[in-house]
Amino acid sequence: MIKVEGLTKRYARTIAVDNISFEVEKGQIVGFLGPNGAGKTTTMRVLTCFLPPTEGSASVGGFDVLSQPMEVKKRIGYLPETPPLYPEMEVVEYLRFVGKLKGISSADLARRVAEVTERCALGDVSAKLIGKLSKGFRQRVGLAQAIIHNPAVLILDEPTSGLDPKQIIEIRELLRSLAGEHTIILSTHILSEVEHTCERVIIIDRGKLVAIDSVANLTNRLRGAEAVAVEVEAAGGQPNPTEVQQRLEQVPGVSRVVMKDSKGSRLSFEVESLQGRHVRADVARSVVSAGWNLNELRSVGLSLEEVFLQLTAAEPKEAEPADEGGQKQ
Amino acid sequence: MKNVLLICRKELKSYFASPIAYAVMAIFGLIFGWVFFNATREFIRFSFQSQMMGGGGTANINDQIIRPLLGFTGTIVLFLVPMITMRLFAEEKRTGTIELLLTSPVKDIEIILGKWLGAVLLFGCVLAMSMINIALLFAWGKPDLKPVLVAYLGLLLQGGTLLAIGALISTMTRNQIIAGIATFFVSLLLWLLSWSTAFDSTWISSLLNYLSIVTHFENFGKGVIDSKDVVFYLSMTFFALFLTSRSLESLRWRA
């Protein structure tokens, strides 16, 4: 549904997004995770045709953002970081305006407005001026605006930022109810946000793609484990890959060994440790004592951990207990 | 076209939902009313005098009230236009609603034309305030209707040009006040161009004189539609709106 290839966005002096590629399939709900200033908003703005890419391409539903922007714009609903609201309009009036702007025919307009009003629980405030609404309601009007034309793709930039915990839960539930019929990309700098709503996570940091994986895999990989790249060379002739793999698996503290590559007599592995264990010294000793050469031994995935640390640091402390309180209600 | 009208209607609504529309109309109504009062008083004194003297001079409402009055209006317009145009794009850039417009399936030119049309219609409402006073002249005198209509057409054309220039300037900043002040000074400059060249006849001065917005109103004020002036206003409007679309486009590359 969404395809991004080699996307780069350069501003006058800085590179906001640096050679990012990813794909999102139909009906998926994907979290775009990264610390502030990582390039999330820029990527989203490229996808919504607000900004053109400097290099690379992006397409939505098979339409390129540069060559067929009108087709792309018809298929996306976009909620920017600050909801694009006109404070002098009433909620209903605003939704009707956006609906017409998105090309809904006047025959369908009333029905669509009623639908999103109900879905985003805006019934009580529909006749109020947007300028008089609270932050939570404004966010919901912003969301209603994004889904009014029933777009195939929803792009939401920090949909829960600045909301109180109860409102966050309401928005999350709304998002989950939207998944399936819509493909959703939402950005956040809060890790727990992704754990709660998303199936897949794309992590970026300082414009670079750090990881794409399912939420479960990522959290396992992230929680204190260490990944080590090992290259082994047999001194005289061809080493047996299974033998090396078994030997590495026997090192205490190792949870998983994956063979990455074999170039002639050299074999590359990625060794993952259990939580909180440092296995590099043991791996080295084990390889050398078997009579093989140890060509390389280095930590990988460090950038991921670094990002993870920043993300967990950004996680608001009161979010978790308040979460539970909200669920009880 | 549907989108142009949609955006135009939205602009008009937000003008009338905020104090801007009422403020501009009230200010214009007051100034125009005051000038009208004085011009009419002078005219009445003059016609009394000429009657007492034995009917020497002929008093003409068109020449002595309406023409100077509407000529003066052409100058007041310079001050009103920035108030109308300053928020057009600057406000949307500041609040981020520009992102909604630019990510909707609407062409840039439709957004620009819609906004410009909204501004022109508000400007029309402002001009309509002066018609109350002019109507009084028609109620008690017998002025010629045609030159009045031509003068209003001229005011509308001149206003349309200035509004397009104001829209252009409004795309360049996210600060309404800056947009307003810059528009005011550009309008003022276009007006002053005619002053500096009044006693000069080199090609530069005639060019500057040609570019002056106010000189092209003079014929309209006399009740004459000169195609040269119409072409000037329309082409200036078109050019300013074209630059606005370029400026809006560049927003995407810079922002």
Compact overview of the structure:
The complex is a heterodimer of chains A (329) and B (255). Chain A has twelve helices and 14 strands.
* Helix/strand/pairing category of chain B: mainly alpha
Count every helix of chain B, treating DSSP H or I runs of 4 or more residues as helices: 11
Task: Enter the CATH topology name of the largest domain in chain A.
Answer: Rossmann fold
Query: Which stretches of chain A of 5+ consecutive residues score pLDDT under 50?
Result: 315-329
Of all chain pairs, the largest interface belongs to:
A-B, 27 and 25 residues
**Sheet with the most strands: spatial strand order of chain A:** 6-7-8-3-9-10
Number of separate domains of chain A:
2
**How is the biggest beta sheet of chain B arranged?**
none
Name the helicity range of chain B. Answer: over 70%
The rounded Rg of chain B comes to 20 Å
Number of strands of chain B: 0
CATH architectural category of the largest domain in chain A: 3-Layer(aba) Sandwich
Task: Write down the oligomeric state.
Answer: heterodimer
Total domains of chain B: 1
Roughly what is the average pLDDT of chain B, rounded to an integer? Answer: 88
Question: From the helix content, strand content and strand pairing of chain A, which structural class follows?
Answer: alpha/beta
Helix share, percent of chain A = 25-40%
N-to-C SSE series of chain A? EEEHEEHEHHHEHEHEEHEHEEHEHH
Largest sheet of chain A: 6 strands, mixed
CATH class of the largest domain in chain A: Alpha Beta
Terminal residue distance of chain B: 28 Å
Can you offer a commentary on this structure?
- The complex is a heterodimer of chains A (329) and B (255).
- In chain A, 38% of the residues lie in helices and 29% in strands.
- Chain A has helices spanning 40-47, 69-75, 91-101, 106-119, 135-147, 165-178, 191-197, 215-222, 241-249, 280-289, 302-314, 319-328, and strands at 2-10, 15-24, 29-33, 55-60, 63-64, 76-79, 153-157, 183-188, 200-205, 208-214, 227-234, 254-263, 266-273, 292-300.
- By secondary structure, chain B is mostly helical.
- Chain B has helices at 2-17, 19-52, 61-85, 90-95, 97-102, 108-140, 145-170, 176-196, 203-211, 217-221, 227-254.
- The mean pLDDT of chain B is 88.
- Classes of the chains: A alpha/beta (329), B mainly alpha (255).
- The A-B interface holds A 45, 48-52, 70, 73-74, 76, 78, 80-82, 84-89, 97-98, 100-103, 145 and B 2-3, 6-7, 10, 13-14, 17-18, 95-107, 252-253, 255.
